[in-house]
Design goal:
This is Alpha/beta hydrolase. This protein is of the alpha/beta class. It has helices at about 45-50, 75-90, 105-115, 135-145, 145-150, 155-165, 175-180, 185-200, 205-210, 230-240, 255-260, 260-275, and strands at about 10, 15-20, 30-35, 55-60, 95-100, 120-125, 220-225, 245-250. Helix 3 (about 105-115) crosses helix 9, helix 4 (about 135-145) crosses helix 8 and helix 6 (about 155-165) crosses helix 7 (about 175-180).
Length: about 290
């Protein structure tokens, strides 16, 4: 698999953040947000394609990927949305284009609605946004995270590998799966894996869920039609709650759309980002790329 390295460092209120940018500086900026239990690595193909026209900013949230993992670290959705707001200021981006996946969707929505972060357009890819969320496994681990932290390394490795695999519909290339699992291994990574699940509190989306009708930013909701983590019906509900939002169903993709259908997702994002205010027909449940 191609190498993915974040060369820059930012000291946030929740620890050191690793970040990077692709494309020529000064081009129309796009910021990509990953979800859990992933990292910016899942955006690599899409980021490189977008970088032909944009300056693309990618980052690993505190507690994820190459960013800081530490005992007692606040990696909650509340903390991540504050860190994202700090990063936008650090980058000097007043109104970027934003694409956010899974928990990154919740982070971008909270930053916008609670912290005043402004976007020129917002694309949400299978986001955590509507209650209830969290699979039975996810909730079980959250309730007993200290027990799971004590698992023998081999059992923990097998558990994380199986969990990450389930995010894909057609299945992940073994090298990609290895790369996604790697940050969660070792004493530091194992503790960090269960820490981020333990801090995944639904109240952080409850705080903003009833405010989605206030969003005036052009919005596109993309959803893998084979998503077993968050059902596609949530995508239709979310698009209906955000005024004027388009909906882009992506066939053959599970929750990890960037890995399952990178070409289809990139095409949808390029079409949307090129003209975010182009006429869309959310009542038909279609975004511009579906026409």
């Amino acid at each position: 698999m191609s190498e993915w390295h974040l060369s820059e460092t930012f000291r946030s209120t929740s620890g050191e953040v690793r970040w990077g940018s692709l494309g020529e500086p000064g081009r129309d900026p796009v910021v990509l947000l990953h979800g859990t239990p992933f990292s910016s690595y899942v955006w690599r193909a899409v980021a490189r394609a977008l970088a032909r026209r944009h300056q693309v900013f990618v980052w690993d949230m505190p507690g994820y990927g190459a960013s800081e993992m530490s005992l007692g670290q606040d990696v909650s959705l509340a903390a991540q949305s504050r860190v994202f707001t700090e990063l936008l200021e650090h980058w000097g981006l007043a109104e970027p284009l934003v694409a956010a996946h899974d928990f990154g969707g919740a982070v971008s929505l909270r930053a916008h609605l609670l912290h005043g972060a402004r976007y020129r357009a917002l694309a949400l890819v299978d986001p955590v946004a509507l209650a209830p969320w969290g699979s039975p496994f996810f909730r079980l681990v959250g309730e007993h995270s200290q027990v799971f932290e004590q698992l023998p390394p081999a059992l923990h490795h097998a558990l994380v590998r199986e969990y990450v695999s389930s995010a894909s519909s057609p299945g992940l290339h073994p090298a990609v799966l290895d790369r996604l699992v790697r940050p969660w291994l070792g004493d530091l990574g194992q503790a960090a894996f269960y820490r981020q699940i333990a801090q995944a509190d639904q109240r952080h989306t409850d705080e903003v869920q009833d405010r989605y009708g206030e969003i005036t930013v052009p919005t596109l909701v993309c959803w893998g039609q084979d998503d077993t983590w968050i059902p596609p019906a949530r995508g239709r509900e979310l698009a209906a709650r955000i005024p004027g939002a388009g909906l882009e169903p992506i066939a053959g993709a599970g929750h990890l759309v960037q890995e399952d259908a990178p070409a289809e997702l990139t095409a949808a994002l390029l079409t949307f980002l090129r003209d975010p205010r182009a006429d869309r027909d959310p009542r038909a449940g279609r975004g511009p790329a579906a026409r």
